[in-house]
Amino acid sequence: MLLVRLARVSRYRLKRAFSAMEMRTHEFALLHFLSEAGPLSQQQLGEALRVDPSNLVALLDGMEGAGTLVRGQDPADRRRHLVQLTPKGLKRLRLAERAALESENEMLEPLSAPEREQLQGLLARIASHSCGGAGKGGHC
């Protein structure tokens, strides 16, 4: 239950950090994933982030309206739409990453630098195992 409690505390702190930017954690996850994975189809994005297609469309509509991403036809398959970040989206992501890092540093404050490295390594191993070998990206 410790991981569940820490996830809840972490989510609360992240929401608080993002509130000044008027950003939701779903938006951050989407921007972050797109920055790492590049242009993706809506279906790939929804599967990777485990977001229901109808919820994803609403999220993408809002973000596209805000100018943080664009959707365009896939040149290889005109039935698919590719989603990609705009410069405004990338700038917004960088600001959010700084806020997330500050939040994370607050949580990890009781740990020394070597302890933080050890924790990072252990969490990466758990993520890799839990995410089907995907680690940072993929299905987590």
Task: Write a brief structural summary.
With 140 residues, the protein is α+β, with helices and mostly antiparallel strands. The chain has 6 helices and 3 strands.
Largest beta-sheet characterization:
3 strands, antiparallel
- Proportion of β residues? 5-15%
Report Rg: 16 Å
**What share of residues is helical?**
55-70%
Question: How would you characterize the overall build of this protein?
Answer:
By secondary structure, this protein is of the alpha+beta class. 65% of the residues lie in helices and 12% in strands. It is built from six helices and three strands, in the order ααβααββαα. Strands 1-3-2 form a three-stranded antiparallel sheet. Helix 1 crosses helix 5. The protein is globular. The protein starts with a helix and ends in a 10-residue tail after the last helix. Residues 134-138 have low confidence and may be disordered.
